[in-house]
Amino acid sequence: MALRTTAVLCNSLSKWAYNLSGFNKYGLHRDDCLYENEDVQEALRRLPGHVVDERNFRMIRAIQLSLQKSILPKEEWTKFEEDKLYLTPIVEQVKKERKEREEWEKEY
Amino acid sequence: MSSKTLATPLIRHVTTRGYAQAAPALKRDARIQSSVLPNKTFVAALDNGSPVARVTIAFKAGSRYEPQSELGVAHLLRSAAGLTTKNASAFIISRKLAQIGASFSASGDREFIYYTVEATQNNLQQALEYLNNIVSNQEFRPWELSDNIPRLQYDLAALPPQVRAVDLLHKAAYRRGLGNSLFIAPKKIGNISSESLQHFAASTLTPGRCAVTIIGNSQENATLVAQALQLPTASEAQSNPSTYHGGELRKEMGGDLAHVALAVQGAPAGSPQSLALAVAAKALGNGPITKWGADNTPLAKAIGNIGPFAAAGFNVSYSDNGLFGLVLSVPKDEATTAVKAAGKLLKNPNLSADAVKAGKNQLKLQVLTEAEEGTTLAESIASQGLYTGVVKSPAEIAAAIDQLSNSDISQALSNAAKNKISMGAAGNLTLVPYVDEL
């Protein structure tokens, strides 16, 4: 019981933080806000084409909204439940591969 | 200073003695051992005491098993060898193999794909571990496949026109199955998805279609390799028996030469006729024996004195069919006479006893020489195992060649010559006759 309340609390806390962060009002997803370093660029290369297209659309829309100093109507905001991490797992994989390469080069 | 001069010869002496002791005594009766495991994997080993061990894992996954909608997937499969699998990344595979000095290759023909690794005996265990990682649980990540596209393009760009002619010959002769090209069509590059490759691999790289051979190590080791493989046991690819249709395909490529492959139906692998036809192909001729020498083979005599040209007999045997014929490269202006003369010889092959005898000796030399090279031997044993389930040593094959009588050979030849001629041609085809004009 206690465990369940903690989980619920945790969930609602992260939801509150998510809504406070504001990027969802522009229709962005969490992974759209990643800083594009080399790992992320490599991960983007590995994504299927249509996922990248959707990401680019969301970003251009966000830039447009930001220029116009406006936000999306509330029903179009990204919901916490709908925000899937489409890029992070791939970035983790890329990082792992880079670490493996660096470890090898340290040893030999 | 004086101590140094004393030390050097001493060390040298010791090391040479050490090597002499380490060299294993050559076994006079090295025999090929073979068996079939409970999961139907064929396992063979030849412990010849070689300091280098060669291990081949072969599968029935050649181009004949390609579905008609995904032609070229077998080429993709062999070019994808060494990419990241579930167990190891492409980076680690290549670095670790390089670290132990092992050499890995993947090659394929119409029937099989061969994954071969060569390593010195003391590094064999590590090399086997990585061979296992390469072969089992292949993942074919889409981005790695698209990074691999230049390799496919290079493969195609580097194809000699003679190979194209023989490839077209197969397509003309068998249409589907064995007629599938060994190489991916340029338009298909990048269009075969990771999923279809995955499906092809899952249905062909199965234990029941696998053979493991080791040259230079024990049968137990080969069994261990076969058992360590993690292969899917799902549905298997169906292969339809390839029937010989006969026909002609031409590819106009320009240039100064015409490359023509002519053939009739041969015999399946393992049959006595296929050996007889292999002798006949050698007897037809293989170009001059000495460099820049005169070409005195029956084939060259039939074509006559038309200036420089190259002509060789060829014979290929597959599990249920075969081709017997010749390959010809001639200057474009002489193509009509040369191809007509070669076609006439193929329709009515008359080989003298001397030519047959020379053919036998040349074939024996070829079989025995190829057996000296461990990788070739490992792959040929694997293919024999997958074709017939029985392995003949090179010496046994040489003995079988000796036992062929002239009548066996002429019988096989006249049987083959009854079939329709097929033709594949590439290069400058301006003056190359069509197959019905032969």
Automatic annotation (TrEMBL), chain A:
It is found in: Mitochondrion inner membrane. InterPro entries: QCR7, QCR7_sf. Belongs to the UQCRB/QCR7 family. Component of the ubiquinol-cytochrome c oxidoreductase (cytochrome b-c1 complex, complex III, CIII), a multisubunit enzyme composed of 11 subunits. The complex is composed of 3 respiratory subunits cytochrome b, cytochrome c1 and Rieske protein UQCRFS1, 2 core protein subunits UQCRC1/QCR1 and UQCRC2/QCR2, and 6 low-molecular weight protein subunits UQCRH/QCR6, UQCRB/QCR7, UQCRQ/QCR8, UQCR10/QCR9, UQCR11/QCR10 and subunit 9, the cleavage product of Rieske protein UQCRFS1. Component of the ubiquinol-cytochrome c oxidoreductase, a multisubunit transmembrane complex that is part of the mitochondrial electron transport chain which drives oxidative phosphorylation. It is a peripheral membrane protein. GO terms for cellular component: mitochondrial inner membrane; respiratory chain complex III. This is Cytochrome b-c1 complex subunit 7. Its main location: mitochondrion. GO terms for biological process: mitochondrial electron transport, ubiquinol to cytochrome c. Keywords: Electron transport, Membrane, Mitochondrion, Mitochondrion inner membrane, Respiratory chain, Transport.
TrEMBL record, chain B:
Residues 191-363 form the Peptidase M16 C-terminal domain. One of its GO terms (cellular component) is membrane. Residues 46-183 form the Peptidase M16 N-terminal domain. GO terms for molecular function: metal ion binding. It comes from the Eukaryota. It holds the Pfam family Peptidase_M16. InterPro entries: Metalloenz_LuxS/M16, MPP/UQCRC_Complex, Pept_M16_N, Peptidase_M16_C. This is Cytochrome b-c1 complex subunit 2, mitochondrial. It comes from Vanessa tameamea (Kamehameha butterfly). The gene is LOC113403665.
